[in-house]
Amino acid sequence: MKKLTVLLLSLALLCLCAPIQSSARMRFVTIGTGGVTGVYYPTGGAISRMVNKKAKVYGLKATVESTGGSVFNINAVVNGDLEFGIAQSDRQYQAYHGMKEWKGKPQKDLRAVFSIHPESITLIASDASGINSLKDLKGKRVAIGNPGSGQLGNSRDALWLAGLDEKKDIKAEYVKAVESASALQDERIDAYFYTVGHPNGSIKEATAGRVKVHIVPITNVKPLTDKFPYYAAANIPMKFYPNATNKEELVPTFGVKATLVTSAKVPDDVVYAITKEVFDNFKDFKKLHPAYSVLTKKNMLEGLSAPFHPGAIKYFKEAGLM
Ligand code: GLU
To answer: From the CB of 44, is ligand 1 less than 6 Å away?
Structure first.
């Protein structure tokens, strides 16, 4: 008798729930971002906010996930675990062409949607460490990035530029950027690398504590920009970090771009909806983060190396951007 009651109750519940679920016909997509103190996380929020305003029109809702960063996001997108991911332009290039972490395994299903804010290779060190150039990293405890991050590759290239060996010359730590600011303040590390847009929560946190810190200039980057097509010289505006001990207004370094990627398997109308809502509401989108101040509709189609997704192409053609 008891069993029968349970069965009948569950059947009744099923009848109640099933029509609601199917009538909603809402599709959910997830955007992989980065640590919560970076710019990818709020960027995922900004993109999803644009498209979620029209959730009913498109039958589409976007949510955001904090992840280990670019490399994690690209892998999750091509494996079908995430529909979208934010990834550095250099990582997009390497994945599509089968280099670095993807050596011999080109990710041919990877698709570009659009590019976003510029990111700079940011080396931040405690004043007490005496690190004032890349060469000074010798013998120091340096967080160079977690394995899923974009910055791990950039830190390695920076070490190469300085002629330093990751295994022999420094004490490399592979912690996440989100943990690095407190590690620097707790004096557990001397410096950390973070490839990130500015301003961001991580550098704000790292400059706000008891331990005095500064951003280390990375100069003479020509060997890097000559060797790799995705690098360009860049500057970090110090006005964002008044508590850093730097005297200069701009700290030189090299940089890449953040980009939005997806898989060839994601339906065209989903990619179209996201592209259209960001570009049609471009003025509102730009207001969502100070790192977007340099964005133009035109430069958001630059710096991409995987083929554009057909859903993005459809919008760009309609809008006369392509
Ligand atoms: N560029 C970093 C990465 O790819 C993430 C930066 C951020 O979260 O803003 O891992």
So the answer is: no
